[in-house]
Amino acid sequence: MTPPAPDPSGAGPDRRISRKTLLRAAIAAGAAAPLLTTGTVALARDSRSAGTSLTPTPLCDDGDGPTHEQMEGPYFKPNSPLRTDLVTPGSPGTPLTVSGYVFGRNCVPLSAVLLDFWQADASGAYDMAGYAFRGHQFTDATGAFVLRTIVPGLYPGRTRHIHVKVQAPGEPVLTTQLYFPGEPRNGTDALFDPALLMNVRDSGGRRQAAFDFVLDVAGVPGPGEPTDPPTEPPGGTWAPGRAYAAGDRVTYDGTAYRCLQAHTSMSGWEPPRVPALWGRA
């Protein structure tokens, strides 16, 4: 008997497709989100085994709870530029694209989530004088993000990794690191966490990776969506839709704030709600 063809989604007789996986597939099909170009949905982690039934609750219980935290390390710098492409012309290294979604714990994709990435260059060095291989971005309306960069180099004591800070509007900052499968140093790096492995594949001299973040927040409609009844903005000089530079000062609801990181403002990212972008003046 001819064995059945493998399921391209990665689900076989020993795996179930989780609600979050199906949601991710539906989003990708309907919104053309920037995922891997294999025609299938890239999974950040394996689904649960067939012997375990899915809970009927609205919780995002797919065998992967909120994304694990990790230390910031000594090389973080605030005020990274707003960009999704960290590669400048002439930069050596293997091109890498990382894509995925940010979900709340109830499987709702989260829009307008801040992701701030930083990493070593191809030789394993961090740019502390400027902002090479540093940049922040926001998830789109479907909760998707995409990062274009290079495979980071190695330096003593660590395996290959990418740092990131993730913050939903008005919520705490998640600081973590993403790892590459099959790296020899994964077994000797004391910080390595297999729950933070990306799915990575080679593609014509490039590498493509996927990872989905799950934040320990309730998924709610994203900022910018209408409220019922409509809310009136409080008084002050801050306004949505403006490009703010680091050091700019505004007032909001009677309090003065100083911009910590250049960004374009949007509803839902008012100064009191985003300490990563605004500090009290």
Automatic annotation (TrEMBL):
An individual GO BP term: carbohydrate metabolic process
Pfam families linked: CBM_5_12, Dioxygenase_C
Designated name of the protein: Dioxygenase
Keyword Transmembrane carried by entry: yes
Transmembrane segments: 21-44
Assigned keywords, A-Z: Dioxygenase, Hydrolase, Membrane, Oxidoreductase, Transmembrane, Transmembrane helix
Ranges for domain Chitin-binding type-3: 235-281
Gene3D superfamilies xref list: Aromatic compound dioxygenase, Carbohydrate-binding module superfamily 5/12
UniProt region (Disordered), positions on chain: 47-91
Organism listed in the record: Streptomyces leeuwenhoekii
Record gene name: sle_35530
